[in-house]
Amino acid sequence: EIDLGFLDAPPASEMALDAQLAQQTADEFSEAAAKKKRSALADMVGSKWARKLEKTAGSMEKSVLRAFGYSSKKKPAPKNYSVTKIKAPSLTPMIIGDAEAWALATCLGLAACSPVLRLKALTQLTFRNDAPRKLWGFLAAQPERVTYALSAYFSGGRLTSDVALACVTAALLRHALLVADDDDVLQGHPLQPFMLRKVLQMYKPAAFSYCWSSPKKDAVRDELFAWVVTLLRDLHARHCRRPLCKPSGWLVDEAQDAHAEIAQRQSQRSKRLMARMPFCVSFRHRADAFSLHSSDNARPSAAEATRVRVRRCRILDDGLAQVAALTPLQLQGRLSVQFVDDFGRTEAGIDAGGLFKEFWTELSKRAFDEAFGLFRTTKHDGLLYPNPDAATAHGEREALELFRFVGRVLGKALREGLTVQPRFSRSFLSFLTGDFNYVTLLEDLRSLDPELHKNLRFLQLYDGDAADLGLDFTITYERFGETVTQDLRYDGSKTDVTNQNKHAYVQAVARFHMVDRLKKPSEAFVGGLADAVDVSLLRVFAAPELQVLISGADAAIDVDDLRKFTRYENCRSNDSTIQRFWAVCKKLSPSDRAALLKFVTACKRGPSLGFGALEPPFTIRKIPDSDKLPSASTCFN
């Protein structure tokens, strides 16, 4: 039994970071958007977690085994840690010996037993007397030693008691997180946010060692790695919703140095790393790898391109008719667009890429418009998710065909590196990446219906008798002005909600809204997406990162970045006219900068990886005729 006060005593620098993170959304703090914030945060993070701890009255000689259980001591009163200095507790030989014996037996037992028995054992250990927190306190008192032992074991070393205890603690922490929503984590359950950063620092090097060093096949080591990496993936998923640390906290330097090998994905270790913990590779390097594998290295000639003839007044209708009829091979190849004006005349111009960009940008804008009836927007942030009533509006078969069509539209945009306007809800993006988490259904429901989420949370935390609320296992919702009631389980209208089943009711409501009503349209959408791009390549991205790939960074266009990668023909960068052009660009409003970019490139947003990735480059050409107004060769852009 050791004093765990230091687990709730963040130093001033950690509290400052928590305050900074609390003001950021996941999108704002994603790697692409956080580029300019890193220098300001650099001096806040990285301080040692170990602080001086005050000694407690009473014996420190009780074993960790007894920490599971049966002490009647009162919890210490809250302390003002801003002035109290505490030090890490000393661990006596008796405590260490008991911990080692317990850890090895428990670790090997959990690894060897059946999944059902393991689940029962983890549940008993996790929710009995705060075991994950107490075990983490034991590890946190000796972080360097445990971190070294973990890395050595996952590189092929032997299983020690330190490793066993650390792996069991990882399994228990992850089990505790299963029932903790984001608010609980923010309030310190099961650990304070600054301690979760220490968890990341301890386990991340070990998991990377396993992926990168290719140790010999070992069933126990494979099982223990699964416990560790599952915890890290859970923490990263929560970080994407509410940042736990700065973006660089997830990276591994060795992975950045080997970015060329990782991008090629030719070695087994690079494939294993990208499959199990892609977050340790920077977003830019993962996006480069996606671009390398998703696009064609050899572009077909204009003669080999599939021709698409589109009336400007019927872009959506013509796009639907022709894009839906393409084979996956044609969709992945080059499309050559011909526009027809309102009088039926073919517009002059050769599509060398620019006309396709213009057509695809306009097509995506109209296909994802809420008025088209396939998507709805979340109530508080206006993000898109599939309309569960689309089948009623369009017919079930026709609706699924339309979802497949818009999936093709988005997939082709990703394949060609086009940034398009739609911004999707996090839960839908998770479905696209194959990382949809059924455990976080209630948290995902918050974005779709904040009021319903609030009511369900009230029921979860309700101290009285839930039967007094008069609920049963049915759900009532609106569909085109009509009130519909549906059972959540067999005979749900005859099953009352009680204290014993209220958590099952909450999960059933969340599952109905997040899965049952959205699964078919989402699967049809992913089917269309797969016609254009290998969806397995998307699984290395978290939801906010995938949104950056789709629609680019949310920040205003960076004129300096655009200028850096601009190409000049028949003129030089230091010509007076060029200098005046960039001076004017810097004074433009964000909307005017976007309009200028659309005028030249047919896209309002720059590439997600910056203008260095724009193909062809932004080009300024000087022509002899000085009386001519500026014009854009969109056929070639």
What would you note in describing this structure?
The protein is mainly alpha-helical and 637 residues long. It has 28 helices and 8 strands. The chain has helices spanning 12-22, 38-42, 93-112, 115-126, 131-140, 143-154, 161-178, 182-186, 193-213, 219-241, 253-257, 259-264, 268-276, 283-294, 315-323, 328-332, 354-367, 390-394, 396-416, 426-432, 441-448, 450-461, 502-516, 519-532, 543-551, 559-564, 576-587, 590-601, and strands at 306-311, 335-340, 375-377, 384-386, 474-479, 482-487, 567-569, 619-621. The strands form 4 sheets. Strands 1-2 form a two-stranded parallel ribbon. The longest helix is centred in the middle third of the chain and has 23 residues, at 219-241.
Number of helices: 28
Query: What would you call the structural class?
Result: mainly alpha
Shape: globular
Compute the gyration radius: what is it?
A: 28 Å
- Please outline the major beta sheet: 2 strands, parallel
- The percentage of residues in β strands lies in 5-15%
| Order of strands across the main sheet | 1-2
Q: End-to-end distance, in Å?
A: 68 Å
Any low-confidence stretches, pLDDT <50, length ≥5? 26-86, 297-303
- How much helical structure, as a percent, in the residues? 40-55%
Average pLDDT number: 80
Strand tally: 8
In short, what is this structure?
The chain has helices at residues 12-22, 38-42, 93-112, 115-126, 131-140, 143-154, 161-178, 182-186, 193-213, 219-241, 253-257, 259-264, 268-276, 283-294, 315-323, 328-332, 354-367, 390-394, 396-416, 426-432, 441-448, 450-461, 502-516, 519-532, 543-551, 559-564, 576-587, 590-601; strands spanning 306-311, 335-340, 375-377, 384-386, 474-479, 482-487, 567-569, 619-621.
